[in-house]
Predict the structure.
Amino acid sequence: QVQLVESGGGLVQAGGSLRLSCAASGRTRAMGWFRRAPGKEREFVATIRWPGGSAYYSDSVKGRFTISRDNAKNMVFLQMNSLKPEDTASYYCAAGKGTIQSSLRLASGYDYWGQGTQVTVSS
């Protein structure tokens, strides 16, 4: 059993930046981020696999967001730059014990979830 705790959300103006952090109580093959805006389905944002460190992004955030990891601390980060109002959502950290390539972008590929941290981007 792995517990995840996210932090770093907040209110920013369009064009601003935020850095989200997720601390895990154990090691997993993949750690990533999903988000859900009110009235919308949960959406894949980014993920990174261990070992190797291959990173994947949704098209909507590619070039603006960067995912990184600290393996020694079992932490994953999401640096969000050039934020847009459409990025407003609750962001959830996710971890998968045995996530395979075909499941990296799917919520079903992850076993553990954090409580979420709110990101609000004003226009």
Notes: The CA atoms of residues 35 and 91 lie 4 Å apart. The chain has a mean pLDDT of 95.
